[in-house]
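Re: [help] complex structure
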Amino acid sequence: MIPANPDRFLADLHHLRTFGASGVDKGVVRPAFSDADIAARRWLAARMEEAGLTPHFDPVGNLFGIAGERSLLMGSHSDSQPEGGWLDGALGVIAALEVARASREVGGPPISVVSFQDEEGRFGVTTGSAIWSGNLDLAKADTLTDHAGVPFAEARARMADLAGDFVDPAQFTGFIEMHIEQGPWLDTEGDKIGVVSDIVGIRDMRVTFGGQQNHAGTTPMHLRRDAFQAMSAFSSAINDRFRNVVTPATVWTIGHVTLHPNASSIVPGRATFSMQWRDGDTDRLARMEEIIRSTAQEIAEARGMKLSYGPMLGLEPVVMDAGLRGALELGAASVAPGKWRKMPSGALHDATNVGALMPVAMLFVPSINGISHDFAEDTAEADLVAGLEVLARAAV
Ligand code: GLV
Ligand code: MN
Ligand code: MN
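Output below.
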């Protein structure tokens, strides 16, 4: 038994929320390498040290609390979306910290803790764990930019005073990540725990249509080369053309748009937007890419647009390790008998990358109303504590 302490766990979880608290619901604004993110990581490092772990920052801002020579690794991320919930990532880090601390106190198994950097993709897709695992080359990562044009190299330099070497993954026997579900299924069905079977794959790139900036009052409609209209036509066309390729589980999103110069009385000359799609099947991801590229090309030709693409980022679908998953299933069956389920993850997680290095598994707790990536994200305290208990049992 590892006697994880629910009160200490909840107190730490609420304390982490004070870094970048939005003032709206329990939400946080703590994007990777922001002042709030760096302050939170310094606090976490101190909490790890108090728990008897050795804190260590790597060159890209990943923070480890190392338990000893050979240990189980647990954790998640503590950066947030630009408008983020208090539990996305934070829950997995603080639950891991509590289980590691409680285990040390009773001479239990050595457990190390990690908070990966930029899981939320300010620069890439799960950037910190992607670099650590070898899925993303550091030199390439350094050239990636956020939506404001800041390169990753410049952002990570903000933590250069803390940075040591990359941590050797060979010291870890496996990785378990606890997370909120971020979707509706557990909440809708009244289940308390989800044991993850697999994590979907993702593709993400920026697309730019370049037209002709012009006067919005004098330029006749038939002479316009309006980049917004091109983007809008593209969005409608792919929704239609995906129909024969996708399943009900497939998702795609245009979530970030920059119009230039973004003024009411100017026909937009340039539209740059994020194009992201996710599915559990690599072939389907590839077929969707073909549709995206051919549709964009057709629209560019028909409307006299220049077309360009940013770097293509992505992660492959990953299946969870049967052994670690079995440990979580046993924990779930004893903590929440008849109230747990096996389920896939439609959200991306650091576990995808870590799976390239060691066996990985994940557990979910419910998200109230299935809301996440929003200040309103929340989970009942009893469900947070049930997840902590399943994690502690599985760790043993
Ligand atoms: C990670 O937060 C994701 O976008 O799935
Ligand atoms: Mn997350
Ligand atoms: Mn997230």
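Residues 17 and 86 are 6 Å apart (CA to CA).
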